[in-house]
Design a protein that fits this description.
The protein has 98 residues and is of the alpha+beta class. The chain has one domain: RRM (RNA recognition motif) domain (Alpha-Beta Plaits, 2-Layer Sandwich). 30% of the residues lie in helices and 36% in strands. It is built from four helices and six strands. The strands form two sheets. The protein has a four-stranded antiparallel sheet. A hairpin with a 2-residue loop joins strand 4 and strand 5. The radius of gyration is 15 Å and the shape is globular.
């Protein structure tokens, strides 16, 4: 059994994520192996909120070169979490938005 803190890696703080905060939508970087139900339970446990839906997307790492050698940046997985109407907001994000 994974800890909720192993599933949620960090919040994603971008212009798009700030725009979604008014509608109770939040973005997180999550573990590559996590599925939607694990992400939902982890967010509900950590932040004590009710989650309505979870959308996920995988981002393939970009190819990068330095001289003749080339490599790839690591893959990432993002989750967009929408809270229910009656749920409270996540205070962590509220402090960042101001």
């Amino acid at each position: 059994m994974k800890s909720p803190y192993d599933i949620i890696i960090r919040p994603v703080l971008t212009e798009k994520s700030y725009d979604g905060m008014a509608d109770k939508k939040y973005a997180f970087e999550v573990a590559l192996t996590a599925n939607k139900t694990e992400i939902k339970k982890a967010v509900e446990t950590i932040f004590d909120v009710k989650v309505e839906s979870v959308n996920t997307m995988r981002i393939e790492g970009k190819m990068k070169r330095q001289g003749r050698t080339q490599g790839r940046r690591p893959e990432r997985k993002k989750a967009y979490v929408k809270l229910t109407e009656g749920s409270k907001t996540i205070e962590f994000f509220e402090g960042m938005a101001q």
